[in-house]
Design goal:
mainly alpha, two-stranded antiparallel sheet, two-stranded antiparallel ribbon, globular
């Protein structure tokens, strides 16, 4: 019976994360790119400069633009950047990285649009905190024309968002990845008591390092999330930039020490993207596999179109929706164009992607291959720390996303939110011991399903996005870099 259930879930997962969703998200990104005159390219310099802008006291919101971005990146930058890229290249070849880039470039327009709308339709509650996200975009934006459709889309998004956080992406899969990385490091680099097993009541025997890790992580998560949004954003504002820089520096060191291999790596990427190196008659098939794996993993990593980042973006202190939309789109740039590219180039240059290794082991082997002068134990330790902290911040980010979804569903009743926090902490604690494949499959399904109501709202409200963008940058000066928006009021009527 269980095997039949798993087969059904696998079929649903294959459909949700198959070509329909991939085409829908990619087509939406292309459509918005055209409608917005390539805002992600024309305004990238302005967006990067705006990240550290100082918020004015009079501006509505709870967080600075930088902290709102880091909160969103805390959930975005995770195991997908280290493990997901390796999985994509192993399954789709080096060409998967090209399609990952394409998904990110058009996805920046999607991220800009969904975060802009979240600001535009957000609400300030009685106690002064801000609530916003695709649920309000659907209810208030789509609902202005079609009330029933708007409400249905809003509720579906909030339900899926809650399920993703509690049942997998936010808890089980992240914690399992953390404990697996720590255990793998201990097995290959440490001898002694850490590898001994202990009996966990009602669960089974596990290595001591896994048991200790689960307890410590549960305590750390509890200490952060019980403090609410401001504590989550403060932690994310420190960990995310530091770990991202550390990982990128290690990657650039590996690349710079092997510059002679860079040209060949790019040849493999572009040839693989279009199936040029496939055997006769297999070029189209190879291209489709590379496309599917690259785009799917890219979307999974940067979450453009899924609707998660707008929840964090809505809390930013800004006067105009475009301000945070333009900053939020840099999250996709940092996540995929920079961090995933570093991982992908290291893997392709090392040639270990077809060695039979899987997941984290591919990335670990790639760095060790390109940096032979650095002791392998040091490389493994640094990568383990990066993976652990990336996954830890993802846990924090997804707790915040799910809490906001529950707050919407409960109509601002905070009791269910407080109950959810303790359930979330418990899920973190038992995460390392969860081995039921159906749990991850269900999480993967609802994660993909989040995208459908969000994408529908973006397509319906694309005119609002264009008008807000046009009004902000003022007609003929639409893409003037550094336009002083603070001294020129705009109209945001849609």
């Amino acid at each position: 019976m269980f095997s039949k259930i798993n087969s059904i879930l696998d079929a649903i997962d294959g459909f949700v994360w198959g070509l329909p969703l991939i085409i829908l998200i990619l087509a939406t990104g292309i459509f918005l790119t055209v409608r917005l005159h390539g805002v992600q390219f024309a305004q990238l310099k302005f967006a990067l400069k705006s990240i550290f802008r100082k918020s004015e006291k009079k501006e509505d919101g709870e967080l600075s633009s930088f902290k709102a971005l880091c909160t969103a990146l805390s959930a975005t930058i995770g195991t997908g950047n280290i493990v997901g890229v390796a999985t994509a290249i192993a399954a789709g070849g080096p060409g998967a990285l090209f399609w990952m880039w394409l998904a990110a470039l058009v996805g920046m327009a999607t991220k800009y649009s969904e975060c802009l709308l979240a600001i535009h339709f957000r609400e300030e509650k009685a106690d002064g905190h801000i609530l916003g996200g695709p649920f309000y975009t659907c209810e208030k934006g789509v609902g202005a024309k079609w009330p029933l459709l708007g409400k249905i889309l809003a509720v579906l998004f909030a339900i899926f968002g809650t399920m993703v956080g509690l049942f997998g992406i936010g808890t089980f899969s992240q914690i399992n990845s953390i404990s697996s990385a720590i255990e793998t490091f201990a097995k290959t680099s440490v001898n002694g008591a850490a590898l001994s097993t202990v009996s966990v009541p009602l669960i089974g025997d596990y290595s001591l390092v896994v048991v200790v890790a689960s307890i410590i992580l549960a305590i750390l998560v509890a200490l952060v999330i019980i403090g609410g949004l401001k504590r989550i954003s403060s932690v994310a504002g420190v960990i995310v930039p530091v770990m991202a820089v550390l990982y990128v520096v290690l990657g650039l060191l590996a690349i710079c020490c092997n510059l002679s291999k860079v040209t060949l790596a790019f040849e493999q990427i572009f040839q693989g993207a279009f199936g040029f190196k496939a055997v006769a008659g297999g070029a189209i098939g190879a291209m489709i596999v590379a496309m599917q794996k690259g785009i799917a993993r890219g979307i999974f990593s940067n979450e453009a179109g899924l609707g998660s980042a707008p929840i964090a973006a809505s809390a930013a202190k800004v006067d105009y929706a475009v301000q945070q939309g333009i900053i939020s789109m840099t999250g996709t740039f940092f996540d995929t164009i920079i961090i995933c590219t570093v991982t992908g180039l290291v893997i392709v240059m090392s040639g270990v992607f077809d060695s039979g290794l899987q997941g984290f082991a591919i990335t670990n082997a790639a760095f060790q291959t390109l940096l032979p002068r650095i002791p392998s134990v040091v490389i493994s330790f640094v990568l383990m720390i990066c993976l652990v902290l990336f996954a830890f911040t993802t846990i924090l980010g997804w707790d915040y996303y799910s809490e906001r979804c529950i707050e919407y569903l409960s109509k601002d009743n905070m009791v269910p939110v407080k109950v959810y926090r303790w359930l979330y902490i418990f899920a973190v604690f038992i995460g390392p011991y969860m081995t039921v494949s159906a749990v991850w499959t269900i999480a993967d399904i609802v994660n993909g399903l989040m995208a459908f109501p969000n994408i529908i709202s973006l397509l319906i409200l694309n005119g609002t996005v264009v008008k807000l963008t046009y009004d902000f940058f003022k007609g003929k000066r639409l893409y003037t870099i550094g336009y002083d928006f603070n001294n020129d009021p705009v109209t945001e009527d849609a």
